[in-house]
Design goal:
About 40% of the residues lie in helices and about 15% in strands. With about 260 residues, the protein is an alpha/beta fold. α2 crosses α8, α3 packs parallel to α4 and α4 packs parallel to α5.
Length: about 260
């Protein structure tokens, strides 16, 4: 598979010079795309994750951190001299049907994808109030549709979007809070979800725009929400999914199709 870094299409970035951004889980995949986007915008980026990046992330600083350790999370944010933007990106889940694991195993998925962003946001609140900064939650379309095989992940992402809306009201006007609702992304691990090149191409054909998102697409959207261009946007959920999913019933229906089988 192509390295996603070689197929990213970075666009023009906002000017975030002088601002400090924390990206959780920003060492690979979508997180690395977000990190690079903020770097292109001129921000000082601090990445925190359990393991360091395998590929250097430009000038970004890396701090090892287990986001499921509240004491460590609070100590990390207290040590920062300044913070303007927090991007709660860390998350994910293995494919695991509900009946194949006990509730405690699923609860750890919810802890990483919902509780950890809440912990980080509360720990960052003091900094963000002083700078009148913003929080960007990285959500998922799995939170708004059935998510078989990753049900706990989908439930956590639904909760994350709800959390962001409530946080946007409670912490206004000093802090803006928004969610990027992300669809399928082509990362270095995409083959684990969709298969090889044939699988990736087949999945891409289900997206109205004809391709999977790139990490840079998500990064550009995150930069926009953190920038002054989005100064009046808070409590919003921005869809980054290439148009969503074509309803399955349209392809199953036998009515309203032309001679080539295309729905009119």
């Amino acid at each position: 598979m192509d390295n996603p870094d070689t197929i990213d299409r970075p666009g023009p970035a906002a000017d975030l010079g002088g601002r400090t951004v924390v990206v959780t889980g920003g060492t690979r995949g979508v997180g690395a795309g977000i990190t690079r986007a903020f770097e292109r915008a001129g921000a000082h980026v601090v990445v925190c994750a359990r393991r360091p990046p395998e590929i250097p992330l430009g000038k970004a600083d890396f701090v090892p951190l287990d986001l499921r350790d509240p004491a460590a999370v609070h100590a990390f944010f207290e040590a920062l001299p300044r913070l303007d933007v927090l991007v709660n990106n860390a998350g994910g889940a293995p494919w695991r049907p509900l009946a194949d694991a006990d509730a405690e195993r699923h609860a750890r998925v919810i802890e990483l994808n919902l509780t950890a962003p809440l912990t980080a946001s509360i720990a960052a609140r003091g900094h963000l109030r002083r700078t009148r900064g913003s929080i960007v939650m990285i959500g998922s379309v799995s939170g708004s549709r059935p998510s078989p095989g990753t049900a706990a992940y989908g439930a956590a992402k639904a909760g994350l979007e709800s959390l962001a809306r409530s946080m946007a009201v409670e912490w206004a006007p000093e802090i803006r809070v928004n969610t990027l609702v992300v669809g399928m992304v082509r990362t270095e691990l995409a083959h684990l979800h969709y298969g090889g090149e044939d699988g990736l191409a087949a999945v891409a054909r289900t997206v109205p725009l004809g391709r999977l998102a790139l990490p840079s697409d998500v990064g550009a959207a995150a930069v926009f929400l953190a920038s002054d261009a989005a100064a009046y946007i808070s409590g919003a959920s921005v869809l980054v999914h290439g148009g969503g999913e074509r309803p399955a019933f349209l392809d199953a229906a036998t009515a309203n199709k032309d001679q080539q089988g295309e729905t009119r």
